[in-house]
Design goal:
This is GDSL esterase/lipase. The protein is of the alpha/beta class. It has helices at 15-21, 26-32, 41-44, 70-92, 104-108, 125-128, 178-188, 196-211, 223-226, 234-250, 267-272, 277-295, 301-314, 331-344, 350-356, 361-369, 407-410, and strands at residues 5-9, 50-53, 60-66, 112-121, 138-147, 165-169, 215-216, 221-222, 227-232, 256-259, 320-324, 386-391, 413-417.
Length: 422
């Protein structure tokens, strides 16, 4: 199928987007630099997707979109997530809802409009105490963005490869942001399923699914393909949690884009100790063998059966994982899939790999001490299938900005890891 190119003219957009997306001389650039440049789309957006049209002191910025391109899809959803970051910044700096707001340009430049703001109250101890000491009350952690074809750009129907909605979740703003810190602690303790931010995200996406028709008659696609999930860092964990929930509770396979998703594992320690690859493979083989043996123990068989059912349900869902090889926060996902694959192709080790990949020593310990053995414990670090996009580009290894670069700079090496039987 021929690649269809959509051209979005920033100059034809609403005032909120035009104000920060049109470069109109030195005075405007000075105004842009009064605050952080990385919040301005025209300065920090994906340059390889932009083109200048016209001459004079006020050229029009054009954004070219190829929905059939993996590179463009990655950059677009990364911009949506960046917009969620900037929207929270707009709120804290009192720009939200004014002509000075910088967040709209991050989605309006691609023909999206804001359908809903995702926000919730912080449930940390400081915000729940009686006197609200140091409380931040509430914050914006994401956005639901609706794709609206632009008639001015010659679009009258959605492109077959374009989503109807993108649900974007931001990551941690700063260590001083108590709501983010609390959510990170809950994630570290594997208690994120009960965290108010994760719960609110599942509820909002569920409501979005309920609000649209279960079949897209324009293109013969299911609703799942019409909604994309995306997030960075902590936001990637939220998107991962929501995507898993939609599969297990509704059997809806939502395309999911995870940038630098956190994974709690020993991989960073092994890297810090400079453990050789041979020793690393040996350690993972021992770990998988121990977990497979423990899974056969009578007390742990219910957990093993539960995880087997969960993996069979999640197997068709393959989220897109964008990871940096030297990012200690998401390095665990690289080792998880690569070491599992090494054992699966090992013949005699495949049985051990299939059993060990569904279990973790931490989850076994928590299960043995849990009062409710049938409770809804989740294992966000255990995935049956995923497509891994690795890069080793220099720069901020855990930053979102790197994912706005073209493929030739990132030198991405993708690989699909499918769970047997998926």
């Amino acid at each position: 199928m021929a690649t269809v190119e959509t051209v979005q003219t920033i100059g034809a957009m609403p005032m909120a987007a035009r104000q920060w997306a049109i470069i109109a001389g030195a005075s405007d650039l000075e105004l842009h630099r009064m605050d952080s440049d990385d919040e301005v789309f025209a300065i920090s957006g994906p340059k390889h997707m932009m083109a200048r049209s016209g001459t004079g002191s006020s050229p029009t910025m054009m954004v070219k979109v190829k929905w059939d391109s993996n590179e463009h899809r990655r950059c677009i959803v990364a911009c949506m997530v960046r917009g969620a970051y900037v929207m929270e910044s707009d709120r804290t700096k009192r720009r939200l809802g004014t002509r000075r707001a910088r967040s709209p340009a991050w989605w309006e430049s691609f023909g999206f409009r804001l359908r809903d703001v995702l926000d919730c109250d912080c449930d940390c101890v400081f915000c729940r105490n009686r006197f609200k000491f140091g409380a931040q009350r509430w914050s914006i952690y994401g956005a639901i963005l609706e794709h609206v074809p632009a008639a001015a750009a010659g679009e009258f129907r959605r492109h077959p490869s374009a989503p109807r909605y993108i649900v974007a979740f931001r990551g941690t703003m700063s260590p001083s942001h108590r709501g983010d810190t609390h959510a990170n602690v809950e994630l570290l303790l594997n208690r994120q399923h009960a965290c108010s931010r994760f719960f609110d995200a599942r509820r909002k996406v569920g409501e979005l699914l309920d609000s649209i028709v279960y079949y897209d008659y324009d293109y013969g696609r299911s609703t799942a393909a019409a909604i994309w999930l995306a997030g960075h860092s902590l936001g990637a964990s939220i998107a991962l949690d929501v995507g898993r929930n939609m599969m297990t509770e509704r059997r809806r396979n939502l395309p999911t884009f995870l940038f630098n998703p956190p994974q709690v594992s020993v991989a960073p320690l092994l890297n810090a100790l400079r453990v050789p690859d041979v020793a690393r493979r040996f350690l993972f083989r021992i770990s998988y063998t121990v977990k497979a043996k423990l899974g056969a123990v009578t007390a742990l068989r219910p957990l093993e059966r539960k995880m087997e059912e969960l993996f069979e349900t999640l197997a068709p869902w393959a989220p897109e994982l964008y990871v940096h090889e030297r990012d200690i926060i998401c390095r665990g996902f690289i080792d998880y899939f690569e070491q599992r694959q090494n054992m699966l192709v090992g013949g005699s080790s495949s049985h051990v790999a299939l059993h060990g990949t569904k279990l973790s020593l931490r989850d076994m310990l928590l299960f043995l001490h849990a009062e409710n053995k049938e409770g809804n414990q989740v294992q966000p670090h255990l995935l049956p299938s995923a497509r891994l996009w690795k890069t080793s580009v220099q720069g901020h290894r855990h930053g979102l900005q790197q994912w706005l670069e073209p493929d030739w700079i990132l030198n991405l090496s993708p690989r699909l890891y499918s769970y047997p039987g998926a």
